[in-house]
Design brief:
The chain has four helices and 30 strands. The chain has 417 residues and is mainly beta. Strand 18 and strand 19 form a beta hairpin. The longest helix is centred in the N-terminal third of the chain and has 10 residues. The protein is globular, with a radius of gyration of 21 Å.
């Protein structure tokens, strides 16, 4: 069913269609209205998926992954368990139970995702026997296996996963790591025995490939690394699986409650590290292809912008000048002709997902979803828009419908064709 709060009134459509044709910079859709939206989940229970760079849809674009919990507006406790499921978008959005997890956070969930390259395997993080682990389940056969470590991002061929220490991440940035296990080096600023771990999904073999100390030793022109505590976050494989990107962050007396950030890339084995953005402000990012990363950051050439970085060079170019002017959770639709993005709540508390057409600079809004003031800080509900493999659907997390955070599907086929 269409969410009529997100459709322009009928009487205005002709006028808006004319405006859209004459002034594409206004960002109106082809027929002068917002695309249809429907709720995939409803109460009781609160549903969401988490981060924008994971595979929420299966390869057929029919099944959607989600998580469910029975509370909101507080931080997770070690004994809080979330339920995991699959939504069949072609069978009345039926919820099919999948499992549960004791290793999760509001922003990124439990890293629930389809295993790349597989039509039926799903992976997520959990906690058992005093350690974080990951589960792989075949949704057709229900065969399960447990791997000895957690995952953050999985390589495109489904062979490797890399991950930071979620206990340290929780200690340094609550809301992005997991509770229930303490960081083993709480008072060590840049440990040598911990950092980014690589795990082979077939065997479960794990190895430390980038210690925190390795990033700490890379000089930073503004200084201040010695007095700070260091951690890693936001890892993502390149589309060809030959490199991955990650954020090195730190906080010390100079940063106060904030932190500074450098964006690194590295090879599969953690070697050949390169500081792609050295200026301390990197935020959300996505790979466009195996050589380029789109990121919201600050650069001395133009200040705060979306920039396209060429890996292992200092070549950058602005993307979306005058149109994509606000930080958001960005991804490229298949084919790289469109960028899917969103905003944090504006002054009316609306979160605004949109598509940006790279060739023309046209911005097409996908809706305006209100987020109540209770959704803030660690407990906020970012939209984190995720697209289907066929590039015709988008799913968001949003509390706008009055039933707390739920999953909503946006049909973008009328925009992208």
């Amino acid at each position: 069913m269409t969410d009529h709060k997100n459709v322009f009134p009928l009487a205005r459509r002709g006028f808006l269609k004319c405006l859209g044709a004459c002034f594409p910079g206004l960002g109106l859709t082809q027929n002068g209205e917002l695309p249809p939206v429907r709720a995939l989940t409803r109460g009781p229970g609160f549903h969401w998926f988490g981060y924008y760079d994971k595979l929420e849809f299966d390869p057929s674009s029919r099944y959607v992954l989600g998580m469910r919990v029975d509370f909101e507006h507080r931080s997770p406790k070690p004994d809080d368990v979330i339920q995991l499921g699959i939504i069949d978008t072609q069978d009345s959005d039926k919820w099919i139970g999948l499992g549960e997890s004791r290793a999760w956070c509001w922003q990124q969930g439990c890293m629930l995702q389809w295993v790349p390259g597989s039509k039926s395997e799903v992976i997520w993080n959990d906690r058992e026997a005093g350690r974080f682990v990951s589960r792989i389940v075949d949704v057709k056969t229900r065969k399960r296996r447990t791997l000895p470590g957690p995952i953050y991002t999985v390589s495109p061929d489904g062979r490797w996963a890399v991950t930071p220490n979620f206990a340290r991440l929780q200690d340094c940035r609550p809301g992005y790591g997991y509770v229930g296990i303490a960081d083993k080096n709480p008072n060590v600023r840049a440990p040598e025995d911990d950092g980014i771990w690589r795990m082979e999904l077939k065997t479960g073999k794990r190895e430390l490939i980038i210690p925190y100390a390795a990033a700490f030793r890379v000089p930073y022109e503004k200084g201040g690394l010695d007095e700070a505590k260091h951690w890693f976050n936001h890892l993502l494989w390149a589309p060809d699986g030959k490199r991955f990107v990650f954020l090195h962050r730190w906080r010390g007396p100079k940063q106060g409650r904030g932190f500074e950030t450098r964006m690194f890339t590295a090879g599969v084995d953690g070697k050949d590290m390169y500081v792609l953005d050295p200026y301390g402000k990197t935020s959300h990012f996505i790979w466009r292809d195996e050589k380029h990363v789109l990121a919201w950051s600050w650069h001395p050439s133009r200040g705060d912008r979306f920039y396209l970085y060429e890996d292992r060079t200092q070549n950058v170019e602005v993307v979306g000048e005058g149109v994509m002017t606000i930080n958001g959770h960005c991804t490229y639709l298949p084919g790289n002709q469109w960028i899917l993005n969103d905003t944090y709540p504006d002054k009316e508390r609306n979160q605004n997902p949109y598509l940006f057409h790279v060739a023309t600079g046209k911005r097409c809004p996908l809706g305006h979803f209100q987020s109540a003031k209770e959704y803030n800080g660690e407990w906020r509900c970012d939209l984190h828009p995720r697209f289907s493999p066929d590039g015709r659907k988008v799913v968001i997390d949003s509390p706008h419908g009055g039933e707390g955070r739920q999953l909503y599907l946006i049909d973008i086929s009328g925009i992208v064709g």
